[in-house]
Write a structure and sequence with these properties.
Largest sheet: 8 strands, antiparallel
Structural class: alpha+beta
Oligomer: single chain
Mean pLDDT: 91
Number of strands: 22
Strand order of the largest sheet: 14-15-16-17-22-21-20-19
Order of helices and strands: EEEEEEHHEEEEHHHEEEHEEEEEHEEEE
Number of helices: 7
Strand content: 25-35%
Shape: elongated
C-alpha cells in the first residue's frame, strides 16, 4: 500500500530483514482515499502498511487496524495484499487476465467495518511488474471477512463464465445447456469439465468461437435458443428445428413450410427404390426434405438432404457447425470420416451424416485435399441415393 502523494507516513528505524537500515523498512501511512468505516474506536486507527525500499521484487503491503493499549500501538487485524491476490488466483475472472510477469496488487479499501472481526469491500487492480507503463491487467471488486482466516468473494463480474466459476449464473447457464441436451442434469452451479465441453459443443454448432468459455455472446445466444427466441433453425439427424424425423408426413409438411416457406419445387408422391413404396420430396434452394414409408408403416418425414450448401437460408444451421466454406480439414477436426472406395463420400457417424460430397470431389480411390469444400450432406433417407 503506497502512501498518499506527499502525505504523512512513518518509517521504522531498523530494517525488517537485515542490518542495512536503508532497505526493507516498515512504512505506515494514511489511506487515500479514506474508506467509509464503522465500528472503529477512538483508540484505533486504520492505516496502510508496506515495506519501503524493498530489496525484492514485489514489496509486501496491506491494510492494518492498530489499537492503542498500555504498551502502545499494536496490530489488531491485518489484511495482506498477497492474501487477497491468493483469493483472486482461485477465480476464473482473474485467471483469464492474470499478467504474465509477477503480479502487483493495488488495493483500495472503500468500506471497512469492525465488529471484533474485519469486514471490508475493496477495489483491486493487478499490474504486471515487468510492464511499468501498462494499464492494469485485471480490475475488480472484492468483499472479504477477516476472522481466523480470510474469506473473500467477487462483487465484480465481467459477464464471462469459465472453468472453476460457481454460483447462480453458472447454474442458469447449465439449465439452458440441459434444456438443449448439451449437458446431462441436474445443474450443479459449478463450471467443471462437463460444462466446458457442453459450452464448446454449443459454440461449435452455433458457429461461435470454440473456447469452452461462456462470454456474453455465448450466454445471450444460449438463452435465446433455449427460450425459443432465436431465429436460427438447427438441422440434425433428429429433425429440422422443432420438426422431428418420423413425424407423420402431413403435419411435417405443414410445419416445414411454416419454417422454410413455400417450397420451390415438390415431386408429388412416386414409387421408388430403397425399401419404400412411396416417396415425396420438397425442395427449398439447396435443401430437400424427404417423406416416405421407408422401413414400413405410414408415410412420414424420414430425412433431409443438402445438395448445395451455398444455396441455403443464412439462418439454417447444422449440428457440427457445418456451413458454407467448411473444409475436409474442418470435418476431420470434428470427427468425420471418408469412404474412398465406393462413391468417395464423407460421413459422420455420431451426427448421423452420410452421402457427403465435396467441391471439387476427389477422384474415386483418393482422399480429398484438406481444403476441399463441403458441397452436400444428408441424414436418414437423405443419407443415401434414393
Amino acid at each position: 500500500m503506497a502512501p498518499a502523494e506527499g502525505g504523512p507516513f512513518l518509517l521504522s528505524a531498523d530494517s525488517l530483514t537485515g542490518p542495512n537500515p536503508e532497505v526493507d523498512r516498515l512504512a505506515i501511512g494514511d489511506l487515500d482515499p479514506a474508506p467509509t468505516t464503522t465500528g472503529i474506536g477512538d483508540d484505533q486507527r486504520l492505516v496502510g502498511v508496506w515495506v519501503d525500499n524493498w530489496s525484492g521484487d514485489v514489496a509486501p503491503a496491506g491494510v492494518t487496524l492498530y489499537t492503542s493499549g498500555i504498551e502502545g500501538w499494536s496490530a489488531t487485524a491485518t489484511l495482506a495484499d498477497d492474501e487477497v491476490l491468493a483469493f483472486l488466483e482461485t477465480t476464473g475472472d482473474y485467471s483469464a487476465r492474470r499478467p504474465e510477469g509477477p503480479p502487483v496488487l493495488q488495493l483500495t479499501v472503500t468500506q471497512f467495518d469492525w465488529t471484533g472481526q474485519a469486514h471490508f469491500i475493496a477495489l483491486v487492480s493487478v499490474f504486471d511488474l515487468m510492464l511499468t507503463d501498462a494499464p492494469a491487467a485485471y480490475q475488480g471488486e472484492v468483499e472479504c471477512t477477516l476472522a481466523a482466516t480470510l474469506e473473500c468473494g467477487l462483487l465484480s463480474d465481467d459477464g464471462v463464465y469459465r472453468p472453476g466459476d460457481t454460483g447462480e449464473g453458472v447454474e442458469a447457464l447449465q439449465a439452458d445447456l440441459i434444456a438443449l441436451d448439451y449437458l446431462n442434469g441436474p445443474a450443479s452451479g459449478t463450471y467443471g469439465s462437463s460444462t466446458q465441453n457442453a459450452v464448446r459443443n454449443f459454440q461449435r454448432d452455433y458457429r461461435l468461437s470454440r473456447d469452452g468459455i461462456a462470454g456474453p455472446q455465448t450466454v445471450a445466444l444460449l438463452h435465446d435458443v433455449s427460450a425459443g427466441d432465436s431465429n436460427i433453425v438447427m438441422a440434425s439427424a433428429t429433425g429440422v428445428g422443432p420438426v422431428p424425423i418420423d413425424r407423420p408426413y402431413e403435419q411435417a409438411m405443414d410445419d416445414l413450410e411454416a419454417i422454410l416457406g413455400t417450397p420451390e419445387s415438390s415431386t408429388g408422391w412416386y414409387a421408388g427404390p430403397c425399401d419404400a413404396q412411396q416417396w415425396f420430396k420438397m425442395t427449398w434452394g439447396g435443401f430437400t426434405a424427404i417423406f416416405s414409408d421407408h422401413g414400413g408403416g405410414a408415410a412420414r418425414f424420414t430425412g433431409w438432404y443438402v445438395s448445395d450448401i451455398d444455396d441455403l437460408p443464412s439462418w439454417l444451421y447444422f449440428v457440427g457447425g457445418i456451413r458454407p466454406g467448411s473444409t475436409w480439414t474442418y470435418l476431420q477436426g470434428i470427427g468425420a470420416g471418408f469412404e474412398s472406395t465406393y462413391f468417395g463420400l464423407w460421413y459422420h457417424e455420431a451426427f448421423g451424416y452420410a452421402y457427403g460430397m465435396f467441391n471439387p470431389h476427389p477422384v474415386l480411390g483418393t482422399q480429398p485435399p484438406g481444403g476441399a469444400l463441403v458441397a452436400s450432406l444428408g441424414v436418414g433417407t437423405g443419407g443415401y441415393a434414393c
